[in-house]
């Protein structure tokens, strides 16, 4: 992964020298879930969130480089089941400052494909949990997810004048951290990744 990032950023620097510049705003929704690698943990239903922010597009011929600065809010849940018929359900609500950097290609000035890394900084987090044999819900704050995260995105877009519609799929690597709950000695340590599908509407400030 480190070698891929080094090659990617060297290509970014070389590309930026001769590129034309455009910029704009974008906003949309993300649908997210987890892929947890443990027999005791499992992901729950898909969560729906918001994403929005600014983008910069550097274009050279049919190729483009697009760094974004995005705020994203993600809601999702997972379950811990160490014993039969007793589940601990975690409902999570968290917000991030995301920096995706995409390198892509346009076809016929209408369709585009792109890919690149995304760097995420957690701004806030609230996780609410309860067990199936109890009705009381308890909140824990800033305990379940890592502060910084690295992911990778692939995307496709449709361009029409000043407007674009983008579809992006994101893998987040190692999003969880070890945490514990009040009254319990043992730590919870889910090992897994996050997955997110984004549908985004963007508006460029300069017409191509």
**Biggest sheet character:** 8 strands, antiparallel, barrel
CATH architecture designation: Beta Barrel
Strand content: over 45%
Would you count the extended β strands for me? 10
How would the global form be characterised?
elongated
CATH topology grouping = Porin
What is the count of structural domains? 1
- What percent of the residues sit in helical stretches (DSSP H or I)? under 10%
Text of the CATH class: Mainly Beta
Structural class based on helices, strands and sheet pairing: mainly beta
Low-confidence stretches: none
Which whole number gives the mean pLDDT?
83
Strand order in the sheet with the most strands: 1-3-4-5-6-8-9-10
Succession of helices and strands: HEEEEEEEEEE
- What is the rounded distance between the termini? 34 Å
Q: How many H/I helices?
A: 1
**CA gyration radius, whole angstroms:** 19 Å
Keywords, separated by commas or semicolons:
208 residues; 67% strand; Porin
Question: How would you describe what is shown here?
Answer:
- The chain has a single domain (23-204), classed as Porin (Beta Barrel).
- The two termini are 34 Å apart.
- The radius of gyration is 19 Å and the shape is elongated.
- The longest helix has 15 residues, at 2-16.
- The protein has 1 helix and 10 strands.
- It has one helix spanning 2-16, and strands at 20-36, 41-43, 47-60, 63-83, 86-107, 111-131, 138-141, 148-160, 163-173, 192-204.
- The chain is mainly beta and 208 residues long.
- The protein has an 8-stranded antiparallel β-barrel.
């Amino acid at each position: 992964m480190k070698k891929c990032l080094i090659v990617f950023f060297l290509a970014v620097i070389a590309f930026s020298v001769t590129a034309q510049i455009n910029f704009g705003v974008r906003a949309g929704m993300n649908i997210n879930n987890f892929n947890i690698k443990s027999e005791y943990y499992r992901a729950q239903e898909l969560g729906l969130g918001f994403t929005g922010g600014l983008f910069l597009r550097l274009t050279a011929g049919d190729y483009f480089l697009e760094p974004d600065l995005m705020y994203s809010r993600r809601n999702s849940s997972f379950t811990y089941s160490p014993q039969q018929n007793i589940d601990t359900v975690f409902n999570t609500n968290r917000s991030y400052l995301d920096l995706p950097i995409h390198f892509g290609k346009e076809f016929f000035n209408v369709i585009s494909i792109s890919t690149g890394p995304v760097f995420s900084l957690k701004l806030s987090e609230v996780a609410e949990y309860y067990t199936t044999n109890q009705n009381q819900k308890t909140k824990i704050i800033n305990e379940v997810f890592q502060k910084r995260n690295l992911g990778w995105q692939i995307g496709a877009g449709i361009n029409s004048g000043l407007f674009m519609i983008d579809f992006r799929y994101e893998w987040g690597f190692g999003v969880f951290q070890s945490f514990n709950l009040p009254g319990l000695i043992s730590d919870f340590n889910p090992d897994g990744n996050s997955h997110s599908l984004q549908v985004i509407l963007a508006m460029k400030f300069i017409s191509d």
